[in-house]
Design brief:
Layout lengths: L45 H13 L4 H4 L5 H6 L5 E3 L25 H12 L3 E6 L10 H14 L4 E5 L9 H7 L4 E3 L9 H4 L5 H14 L4 E8 L5 H13 L4 E6 L16 H13 L4 E4 L9 H13 L2
Parallel strand pairs: 1-2, 2-3, 3-4, 4-5, 5-6, 6-7
Helix pairs in contact: 4-5, 5-6, 6-8
């Protein structure tokens, strides 16, 4: 089993809650009707309910709910869930993301132990840990990432760990501390092409994010690196291919590409739905450029099928 991270819309209206008060000045944009290849069924199974009960019992936050994931039914029915550390409130207001923004609360110092216990209870062989951005903290939450990794290592030493981190912008030494904790996979999403950053990811800097992933390889060449893109925001094919080249120059091993889905009318509108054939073409191009692993489908998200993909990633390196 694994823990999955996703950012998109969910079929579960009961999981939605008011959020993004700072985005109310953005004009409403119509939400396009999803094509047949992007639609998912609402979860109804007992396995889904069991996973939800385990997460709630531990008092943990899941990105499945907070980021409104379209794959939540599939993942939770397989006893997968998402752990999002450092609270449920982000200090940034990215135009694509459904996680609420504002002033976060205090860091839960017991969270590493709670997550380690959940990993053991759920029998996870591979776990993905992500977080909100915590620009309010001196280290951006880096020490908390380290504490979570160490707690999992102590309680479940055979579990492989994948982290999906913020960019630690202007947090000297923070990235290095997390790199040195030696997760099996260090993931940080570029999200979109440089031209769209000001509109889609205004609090971030494209080349800082790219350099963060390059620093992982500079400091620990054996640590797998991973990054993801959303498409359907108005980017061109040529821009996506240039980002692929930038990623390969930074030594990134694993690329994910998925369709952007507009969470609410206050978020960035969808420019278009990219077809399955176009995703297949992107995968072919990315593999030709030298990525060890590529996942490119409409419903691909940062850690969708992370356990099986990690096994393929290790096998691809071993075959070199």
């Amino acid at each position: 089993m694994t823990v999955l991270f996703d950012k998109a819309s969910t079929p579960n209206s009961d999981m939605q809650k008011p959020r993004h008060p700072e985005k109310q000045n953005r004009p409403d944009s119509p939400i396009l009707r999803k094509p047949s290849w992007i639609r998912v069924k609402a979860p109804t199974s007992s396995a889904f309910s069991l996973t939800r009960d385990i997460v709630k019992k531990k008092g943990l936050v899941t990105v499945c709910e907070e980021a409104a994931c379209p794959n939540i039914g599939e993942c939770w029915e397989k006893s997968h869930a998402t752990f999002m550390i450092l609270g449920d409130t982000c200090t940034r207001a990215c135009a694509f993301c459904n996680v609420k923004t504002g002033l976060p609360g205090a860091v839960d110092l017991d969270e590493p132990a709670k997550i380690a216990q959940a990993v053991v209870e759920m029998g996870l062989q591979h776990v993905v840990i992500t977080s909100v951005d915590r620009d309010d903290l001196a280290d951006g939450g880096a020490d908390h990432f380290v504490n979570v990794i160490n707690a999992i290592r102590q309680s479940s030493p055979k579990t492989t760990i994948e982290i999906l981190t913020p960019d630690f912008l202007r947090k000297d030494g923070a990235a290095e501390a997390v790199i040195d904790a030696k997760a099996d996979v260090f993931n940080h999403n570029l999200e979109t092409v440089p031209r769209l950053y000001l509109k889609i990811r205004p609090g971030a800097r494209y080349y800082h994010s790219l350099r963060l992933l390059e620093r992982v390889k500079d400091r620990d060449s054996q640590q797998f690196t991973k990054s993801g893109l959303m498409v359907g925001l108005g980017e061109t094919k040529e821009e996506v291919m240039q980002v692929m080249d930038d990623m390969r120059s930074a030594g990134i091993d694993f690329l994910t590409i998925g369709q952007y889905l507009q969470p609410t009318r206050k978020h960035a509108p969808i420019d278009r739905f990219v077809t399955p054939d176009e995703f297949k073409a992107y995968e072919t191009i990315a593999r030709a450029k030298g990525f060890l692993m590529v996942s490119a489908t409409p419903l691909t998200r940062s850690s969708y099928h992370a356990d099986s993909d990690f096994a393929k990633l290790r096998a691809a390196r071993a075959a070199l």
